């Protein structure tokens, strides 16, 4: 029985690495194939006896893509029959002996940028994507346009420009004006100069690169490739089918790179450890070792996986995860009684060391006929009942109406800014959650030391997982809970290393607790709420409290001692309210306590 073995037959092998035979196998002659610089050199014929020898000669990494696994088929009747591995004929020097890697263009993908509910003006709205400065605005037809955010004249930021009444984008520096397709429509200082106008108006040298946009389920997507409009039209953004037409999206810019944020989203086992005290039943002593994942490689369409519980409180739960390139994670937790929690995350690679999180969640209650004893007892279902706190999810249900919500409709009509203030206060609740700060604290450190540590070899050298194979990594991925991270890293490495390439991950991360940079600077709702809180605190401090103290003093001077107690209490209440309002306003700027408090956050107490 003979078999011709070629590297192409084993897609699980990485960079030409072949299994090595061990001395315990019965091998005649020089038999082990060696790999060097992705070139396969066969030293001699191989004779391996029996089943153990056959597996040792061509064994693959245990977990290669589910649909692409190469499984040795051998009969127990082989007995002592010899299996010979025959060396292929050497190729000529001109032949390419390396297998081509899958082509994946990270520019030719749909990336979500903003929920349309946040784009309440015609623009310009600045943002970063793949390290580029871009800008959004509405043209004369009410369609969102996207183009480079730098004026070709003197490199001024178009984000500080304005949109003309007919929907053109005007640079604030010298008034150059651009159409929706990026072409230059007007140069004020060239008026009357026919030669200058002919060189600039409608010319390629003055044209902004423009990019396709699309709105799906309340999200505005951008295709950051200016010369593939047809391809963009044929491809749809990845959006989970379970979502309704107008989900309640939340948006935060977070430190750490696109890669580590997605890796974290494929690693549920971190929750009871990293997120202790953030949610009920999250504690290290309640963690349970995970069973192996069931992972399927979907090629350029990403990965899908399913797994069981990872804590005592969710044993019996079944989770289904889907990676939708370039940056989406759609996850459903299905409990034995039928209730479902769904999470949808986008980790948009804005620049190296920073992502934009666009997230939402939903909850499907158990069927009404579900019995009390459905496999999870006592408080084991609490995770699916609580209002999850943190920036990664929205509220499942409103527990109580806020003060702003209870105001009459007549006041709202007179003061339409109240709607923005209400939404901004809801975002404040999300920012104050522990989950996001706990994630940021660990992931920003992990991202800053990971690749440099192994590249410079001051920590240790990169290594390939013995259990899952794949490319060399700075991680030690050997438990069942690590499988999806290992498979995701292999998927990304096979496609150039991600949006910024293999060497685009090293950068200085922004502040972990910087709320202004993370959310408030681009959220008009948060800015409205911040202005409301600050204004109310200023009013109490400068007007209400002094007035109450003045009345109390006059009452004391007139001998009305008992009556003076009322304005005194009002002044004390005003001071207390002012302090609380200042604290809430501080939450829109930083996650650290305001002075004179210590700049310290206790995330695990």
Automatic annotation (TrEMBL):
<dbReference type="GO" id="GO:0016020">
    <property type="term" value="C:membrane"/>
</dbReference>
<keyword id="KW-0001">2Fe-2S</keyword>
<dbReference type="InterPro" id="IPR017941">
    <property type="entry name" value="Rieske_2Fe-2S"/>
</dbReference>
<dbReference type="GO" id="GO:0046872">
    <property type="term" value="F:metal ion binding"/>
</dbReference>
<keyword id="KW-0479">Metal-binding</keyword>
<dbReference type="GO" id="GO:0016491">
    <property type="term" value="F:oxidoreductase activity"/>
</dbReference>
<dbReference type="GO" id="GO:0005737">
    <property type="term" value="C:cytoplasm"/>
</dbReference>
<keyword id="KW-0408">Iron</keyword>
<feature type="domain" description="Rieske">
    <location>
        <begin position="110"/>
        <end position="222"/>
    </location>
</feature>
<keyword id="KW-0472">Membrane</keyword>
<keyword id="KW-1133">Transmembrane helix</keyword>
<keyword id="KW-0812">Transmembrane</keyword>
<keyword id="KW-0560">Oxidoreductase</keyword>
<dbReference type="InterPro" id="IPR050584">
    <property type="entry name" value="Cholesterol_7-desaturase"/>
</dbReference>
<dbReference type="InterPro" id="IPR036922">
    <property type="entry name" value="Rieske_2Fe-2S_sf"/>
</dbReference>
<dbReference type="Pfam" id="PF00355">
    <property type="entry name" value="Rieske"/>
</dbReference>
<keyword id="KW-0411">Iron-sulfur</keyword>
<dbReference type="GO" id="GO:0051537">
    <property type="term" value="F:2 iron, 2 sulfur cluster binding"/>
</dbReference>
<protein>
    <submittedName>
        <fullName>PAO protein</fullName>
    </submittedName>
</protein>
């Amino acid at each position: 029985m003979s078999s011709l073995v070629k590297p192409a037959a084993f897609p699980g092998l990485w960079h030409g690495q072949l299994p090595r035979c061990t001395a315990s196998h019965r091998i005649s002659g020089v038999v082990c194939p060696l790999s060097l610089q992705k070139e396969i050199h066969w030293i001699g014929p191989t004779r391996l006896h029996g089943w153990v020898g056959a597996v040792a000669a061509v064994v693959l990494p245990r977990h290669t893509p589910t649909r692409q696994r190469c499984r040795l088929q051998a009969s127990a009747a082989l007995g002592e029959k010899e299996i010979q591995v025959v060396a292929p004929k050497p190729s000529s020097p001109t032949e390419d002996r390396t297998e081509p890697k899958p082509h994946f263009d990270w520019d030719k993908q749909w990336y979500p940028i903003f929920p349309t509910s946040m784009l309440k003006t015609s623009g310009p709205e600045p943002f970063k994507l793949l390290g580029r400065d871009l800008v959004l605005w509405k043209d004369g037809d009410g369609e969102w346009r996207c183009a480079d955010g730098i004026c070709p004249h003197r490199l001024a930021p178009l984000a500080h420009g304005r949109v003309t009444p007919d929907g053109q984008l005007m640079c604030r520096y010298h008034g150059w004006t651009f159409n929706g397709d990026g072409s230059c429509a007007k140069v004020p200082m060239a008026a009357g100069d026919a030669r200058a106008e002919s060189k600039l108006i409608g010319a390629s040298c003055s044209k902004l690169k423009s990019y396709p946009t699309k709105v799906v389920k309340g999200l505005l997507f951008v295709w950051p490739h200016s010369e593939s409009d047809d391809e963009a039209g044929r491809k749809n953004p990845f959006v989970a089918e379970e979502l309704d037409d107008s989900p309640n999206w939340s948006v935060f810019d977070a430190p750490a790179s696109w890669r580590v944020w997605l890796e974290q989203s494929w690693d549920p086992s971190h929750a009871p450890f990293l997120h202790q005290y953030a949610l009920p039943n999250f504690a290290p002593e309640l963690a349970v070792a995970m069973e192996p994942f069931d992972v399927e490689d979907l090629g350029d369409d990403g990965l899908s996986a399913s797994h069981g519980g990872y804590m005592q409180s969710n044993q019996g739960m079944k989770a289904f995860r889907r990676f939708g390139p370039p940056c989406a994670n759609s996850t459903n937790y299905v409990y034995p009684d039928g209730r479902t929690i769904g999470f949808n995350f986008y980790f948009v690679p804005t620049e190296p060391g920073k992502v934009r999180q666009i997230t939402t969640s939903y909850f499907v209650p158990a069927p009404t006929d579900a019995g009390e004893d459905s496999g999870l007892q006592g408080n084991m279902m609490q995770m699916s009942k609580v209002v999850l706190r943190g920036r990664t999810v929205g509220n499942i249900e409103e527990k109580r109406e806020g003060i702003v919500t209870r105001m009459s409709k007549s006041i709202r009509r007179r003061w339409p800014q109240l709607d923005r203030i209400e939404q901004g206060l809801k975002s404040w609740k999300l920012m104050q959650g522990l989950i996001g700060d706990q994630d940021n604290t660990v992931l920003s450190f992990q991202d800053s030391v990971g690749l440099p540590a192994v590249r410079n070899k001051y920590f240790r050298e990169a290594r390939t997982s013995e259990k899952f194979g794949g490319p060399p990594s700075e991680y030690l991925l050997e438990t069942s809970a690590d499988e999806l991270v290992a498979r995701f890293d292999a998927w990304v490495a096979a496609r150039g290393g991600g949006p910024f390439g293999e060497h685009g991950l090293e950068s200085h991360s922004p502040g972990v607790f910087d709320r202004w940079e993370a959310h408030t600077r681009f959220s008009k709702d948060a800015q409205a709420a911040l202005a409301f809180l600050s204004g109310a605190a200023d009013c109490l401090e400068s007007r209400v409290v002094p007035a109450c103290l003045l009345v109390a003093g006059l009452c004391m001077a007139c001998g009305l001692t008992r009556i003076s107690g009322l304005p005194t209490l009002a002044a004390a209440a005003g001071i207390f309210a002012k302090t609380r309002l200042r604290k809430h306003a501080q939450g829109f700027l930083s996650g650290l306590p305001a002075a004179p408090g210590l700049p310290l956050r206790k995330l695990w107490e």
